[in-house]
Amino acid sequence: MPDEDLKARARRIRLVLMDVDGVLTDGRIWYAPGGAGMEEVKAFDVGDGAGIVLARKAGLATGIISGRDAAIVVHRARELGIDEVHVGVRDKAAVLETVLAARSLRPEEAAFIGDEVVDLPVMRRVGLPIAVANASEDVKPYAVYVTAAEGGRGAVREAVELILKAQDRWDMLLAEFLS
Questions:
Q1: Is residue 100 within 8 Å of 106, Cβ to Cβ?
Q2: Among 4, 14, 30, 81, which residue's beta carbon has the most beta carbons within 10 A?
Q3: 4-178 architecture in CATH?
C-alpha cells in the first residue's frame, strides 16, 4: 500500500458499506421459477463473505445499500452478520446520512464500494470511495482505490484486507487463525 493518502484514509474507517449487484455479485441477475412466480438468483463470492466476516471480527461495522430489493440479498446479509442492510433504496446518499447519524460516525470514517453511477452520490461523501475493477469508467475517477479484483470475484475481500492492513489489524487476525 504505497499511497500515503490511501493509507491515511483507510486508517480512519469504522464502517464498510457496499452496493450489491456488480460489487458483491458479478452484476448478472438470474431469474428462476419460485413459489410466487419468478425469484431472483444471485451468486456471491465466498472470499467476499470471508472479507466481511474478517471486517466484523476486527471491529468494523458493515453494510449494504442497494437499489434492488431481493430476498436473497437479505438472506446473505443475515448469514454474514452484516450490520446495516438497506435494499430497494432510491436515495443512497440519504441512507448513508441516516446510517452515519445512527452510528455517530463522520463521513470520513466510512468506506463505500461501488460500481455504477447510482453509487456516485455515496462515493462522493465517504472518506474512502472504492470502485471494483470492472466498475463503470464514469465511476473510477471518483474512487480513491480501484480494486484489482472484479465485482463478485473478491473485490470486497481485497478492499477489506487493504483497510485492515492500513489499521495494523491484519496480522493480528491471521495470528488468530494460525494459533
A1: yes
A2: 14
A3: 3-Layer(aba) Sandwich (3.40)
Task: Enter the DSSP assignment of 150.
Answer: P
**Cα(169)–Cα(84) distance, rounded to whole angstroms?**
22
Number of Cα atoms under 13 Å in the Cβ half of residue 147 = 32
pTM here is: 0.94
Phi/psi at 137 (nearest 5 deg)?
A: -65, -20
Residues 167 and 7: their CA atoms lie apart, in Å, by 8
Contact 52, 64 (CB under 8 A): no
Do the strands 84-86 and 30-34 form a parallel or antiparallel pair, or are they unpaired?
Answer: unpaired
CA 119/CA 42 separation, integer angstroms: 20
Q: How far, in Å, CA of 74 to CA of 110, rounded?
A: 21
What are the boundaries of each domain within the chain?
A: 4-178
Q: What is the pLDDT of residues 66-112, one digit of tens each?
A: 999 988 999 999 999 999 999 999 999 999 999 999 999 999 999 99
